[in-house]
Amino acid sequence: QVQLVESGGGLVQAGGSLRLSCAASGRTFSAGAMGWFRQAPGKEREFVANIWSSGIPYYSNSVKGRFTISRDNAKNTVYLQMNSLKPEDTALYYCALDPTDNGRFDYWGQGIQVNVSA
Fold it and tell me: How does residue 12 score in pLDDT terms, banded at 50, 70 and 90?
């Protein structure tokens, strides 16, 4: 049984920073890709960033240059460092696991709220 548990969300002023963490259990972590997605009220869920098993990251244009994704395979944890936050970054953020490193995310966390005030 795969479990993904996010932490680190909260309320921050625009221009501030937050770091999200996602701890994975129940499956080999290092062989897969990990990703972050988000969903704002009234909008569809969108891709934020992912990091392949090789360690190579990929970002959406909306967060490139502001967010950094990283992983610690020894801790089965993926991180999302979010800097220069904007009110439009407000959303429920989800962690996801792609166990076969092929771009298909089969496992999802429950999500964690990030609120950025103007």
Answer: very high
